[in-house]
Design a protein that fits this description.
about 30% strand, Rossmann fold, globular, five-stranded antiparallel β-sheet, D-amino Acid Aminotransferase, Chain A, domain 1
Amino acid sequence: MKINVGVFFGGRSVEHEVAVISAVQAMNSMDTEKYNILPVYITKQGEMYYNPAMLDINLFKDIPALLKNSIPVTMIKQGESFCLIELKKGLFKKTLSFIDIAFPIVHGTNCEDGAIAGWFELLGIPYVGCDTLSASVGMDKAAFKYILMQHDIPVLPCVTFHAKTFTLEKQVVLNTIKEKLQFPLIVKPVNLGSSVGISKAADEAELIESIREAMHYAEKILVEPAITDLREFNCSVVGDMDACDTSVIEEPIMTGDILSYDDKYKNGDKGGKTGGKSSGMASLKRKIPADIPPQLRQQIETYAKSTFQAIGANGVVRIDFIFDAKNEQVYVNEINTIPGSLSFYLWEPKGVPYKELLTKLIDLGFKRSRTKENLTFSFDTNILSQGGAFGSKGKK
């Protein structure tokens, strides 16, 4: 009997379209002899629709037409089963299918940040990828840095602050940044990926402009030093806390001072096909494998595994590194807990076909679920039935 895999993709995020590309790539690469694929598209408004034809990327060129021909759905738990339910005017109508495991392919806030993992945890359904804690830590660039510092993994220093604080106390924030860091600087929204809202500032005027740009995308902002003699490297990791492995290392090719959204998704053949899959992150210009000495390669691989384990990651991630070529120092920059294109292009050169990678991720999801079955989350005894034991205000 085939396993029903519910692929949840899209979401309320500025990285919505990137997630659609990643999901279509994955669904077209899954082993259909093992899995029934149930595409569940999450709109930018947070509504969910099911349509088995959603494996065709061209359908997403006209979203209103796609939704008109799709079924509004939600997922609920009934007994020990997880049901994909058709909705009609907000009411349950009928069960369309059962789901054995959820496979989230979402990027950015309101989904990759642990929100969708939390929903799966609440239902108790097996799911692929990082759990709520590791996903939220991975999305928050500041929290991620602080955790890595505790594990002696090198990261750049930073200053973080809330957008409201900058609005009310602009000069205080600017003075703090200038006291702790030196220009040039990189300004980032603290919880976005795909290089959205990131810019470089050479002086105070540009810093103010960069902060205001980042404030369009997040309530919290991070500022860190910009490496002038910069090279960037990416390495994917697959596994769990028991064991993990690293992919080949790539060096993305930048067209400017930073690796931008356009570099990642608009340069190359995003709109075309690569081996039957929409290109997405696979269209980025890059060197695979990166032309680096063995010692640096080993260092990156070691830090990649240590980072994966430090946040308790699961499934596939991509860890981005910054290399200061002048000082020959490598830093962990950030982690993508659901990376664009699921980083399949970093595993294929290592002899791992995309189909095999996806099967590995599903197996890891089931493994974690089996482990959790041995844990206690509730007691059979209902203390509320003991009658008046806690008084009107209750106790804890």
